[in-house]
Amino acid sequence: MHSWPSPVVPAVPGEAAPLRLHDTASGRTSEVAADRVARMYVCGITPYDTTHLGHAATYLTFDLVYRLLLDAGHEVHYVQNTTDVDDPLFERAERDGVDWKELGDRETDLFREDMETLRVLPPRDYVAATETIDEVVEMVGELLERGTAYVVDPAVDGYADVYYRHRATPDFGYESNYTAAEMAEAFAERGGDPDRAGKEHPLDALLWRVQRPGEPSWPSPWGAGRPGWHIECSAIARNRLGMDFDIQGGGSDLAFPHHEFSAAHAEAATGEGRFARFYVHAAMIGLDGVKMSKSLGNLVRVRELHAQGVEPSVIRLGLAAGHYRQDRSWSDAVLDEARTRAGNWRRAVDRGAGADATAAVADLRARLADDLDTPGALAVVDSWADATLAGDESDPGAGEAVATAVDALLGVWLGDERG
Ligand code: 5CA
Ligand code: ZN
After folding, report:
1. Distance between CA atoms of 21 and 364, rounded to whole angstroms?
2. Which residue of 17, 24, 317, 333 has the lowest C-beta tally within 10 Å?
């Protein structure tokens, strides 16, 4: 399906710093040693109630990754999915009396608009689950062939669903590093079905769900049905990026089971080593201390803030005020601080001449390249703005240079307020 329009990313003079990121699997922060074409997959939305600030924070985090890779001279092959066929979508469609497909299409459109508003760089391949059923069917076939998947005995409840043997890869658990107890808890909480009778083990993950009454279905050798969740991202990523791609990303709530199983499925199907080199997770955004989620309903939506006159750069600055790996809350105080900051930066940039931009831009790059230290990066620009507003005019082209760097590297627009 189509992606969204790309903002222009200006080139930044000076030298880029190589990007270092924290990898959940190894627990280490190290250089992303990508080839000329860096390959990144980021899990997309389940399109039924978007885009809240938690979603925005996660996609903005990977937008920074993208921008830093570009700055370092890479081309980026970015792939993102939408989970446009899944239980929560059906439940919302049923509640609202709309067709699930229409709901998914409408919400995906809204998401695209929100991403464009926030000046998020679009994926090259934006892929709906419903577009890739054949890829899933093929991969489930590979897993069955290799003996790493099995069909549940239909005598149990009438449905011969296909499941993945969770221990089929020798190092299952390497991605999240969860203990068995943590796995059991997270699996039950995040879309798993530990109590489904007929499975060999409670942690085995659904690959193909045979059609239940009222549910959409597609043909397969195991009967009409629909894909499980993890196999979808596994197939979409592998078929576009290959194995051993650079970055698999998402929110921290996806570390287990979703990313663990996406990786394990692809590794078991191909026997070709690891799925991704880095597993990168953005922490959770809450509202006044409680995790923001569609199921809890405590949402602040991007489009509502924007409609209230909050400019996109202020949303970006509010979310970037904390580090991406730190759970944090949105609040009026965060919003006020971001507004004040955007105002200071704009006033400083508008002076034209200002404090030394070369040093500020180098420091900004260094902070961002160090595992996206956005609090440090904002502090660098704050100091430059403070010095400039205090009267330092030593660098005649400073305003434009800093505005360009802040635009390219942080996605923050300091020109005329837009939209
Ligand atoms: N479609 C699946 C991924 S394949 C999914 O998790 N969709 S989602 O709509 O529930 O979430 C989309 C992205 O937003 C995921 O990366 C998720 O981890 C992230 N996300 C959801 N809630 C929050 C939150 N409160 N804070 C930060 N990120 C969040
Ligand atoms: Zn995913």
Report:
1. 16
2. 333
